[in-house]
Design brief:
206 residues; globular; seven-stranded mixed sheet; mainly beta
C-alpha cells in the first residue's frame, strides 16, 4: 500500500528524546473519514491528544515517532478531564450531606466525579478491542487503521478476525465501512467476505 501508513492501537510511541507512551485510541472524523489525532498515554495512563502533523510511522516496525520532545508532548491537550460533581454553592440545608464525606479532616469517601473526553466535536475514538460488525454479525476486533500518508484519510481497517487459534489480521477496505460510532465499526459485507480477504495490512485486500 504505497503512500499509506499503519496506525496500530497499542503501538509504542517515542518523542525526539525518548519513549513517551503507547497509542490507546485513534480519533476519527467519521464524515471523511480521516484520523485527526492519536491518544497517547504515558506510564501513568494520562492520555494526550496528539495531532497527526506530529506523527511519523516506521512502516517496517510500526513504531510511532513524534516530532517533539517529551516536555512538549506533556503540554499537549489532555484527552480526558475529570470534574468533581460536588456543588460548591450547595444549599446550606444539604451541608450535612457534604460532611458525610469528611471526618476530622480525613476524606472517608471519594467525592463523586465524572470523566469526559475532550475530542473535537463530532469525532469518535477507536479503541483496541472495539467490535467490527459484518452485515450478519460481529466478525472480530479492531487492531488499528491504515491511513493515507498525505490526506490522513482512512484506507483500511485492521481487524483481528476469528478466534485465538487460527486468527489472522486482515485489512478491510474503507469502501466496505458504512459507519463508525461508539458501538464499533459497521461493514456492508458479510462474515464470509471478510474471511476471504488476505492477511496483513501490507497486502491489498482488493
Amino acid at each position: 500500500m504505497a503512500g499509506t501508513m499503519p496506525l496500530t492501537i497499542g503501538a509504542d510511541v517515542s518523542c525526539t528524546d525518548g519513549v513517551c507512551g503507547k497509542v490507546t485510541r485513534l480519533v476519527i472524523d467519521p464524515r471523511a473519514p480521516t484520523v485527526t489525532h492519536l491518544v497517547v498515554s504515558d506510564h501513568q495512563l494520562q492520555g494526550r491528544l496528539v495531532p497527526l502533523n506530529l506523527v511519523d510511522v516506521d512502516a517496517t516496525t510500526g513504531t510511532i515517532r513524534l516530532s517533539c520532545a517529551t516536555a512538549e508532548f506533556e503540554k499537549l491537550h489532555p484527552a480526558d478531564v475529570t470534574v468533581s460533581l460536588l456543588d460548591n454553592d450547595a444549599d446550606p440545608e444539604n451541608s450535612n450531606d457534604q460532611l458525610l464525606l469528611y471526618s476530622l479532616g480525613r476524606r472517608l469517601l471519594d467525592p463523586p466525579s465524572a470523566t469526559y473526553n475532550t475530542l473535537p466535536s463530532g469525532e469518535v475514538a477507536a479503541r483496541r478491542g472495539d467490535h467490527v460488525h459484518a452485515t450478519d454479525g460481529n466478525i472480530g476486533l479492531i487492531q488499528g487503521l491504515v491511513i493515507d500518508s498525505g490526506s490522513h484519510q482512512v484506507t483500511h481497517v485492521l481487524l483481528q478476525e476469528g478466534h485465538v487459534f487460527g486468527s489472522k489480521v486482515v485489512a478491510i477496505p474503507v469502501g466496505a465501512v458504512t459507519g463508525v460510532n461508539q458501538n464499533g465499526i459497521q461493514l456492508n459485507i458479510t462474515k464470509q467476505q471478510v474471511k476471504d480477504l488476505p492477511s496483513g495490512w501490507h497486502r491489498s485486500p482488493g
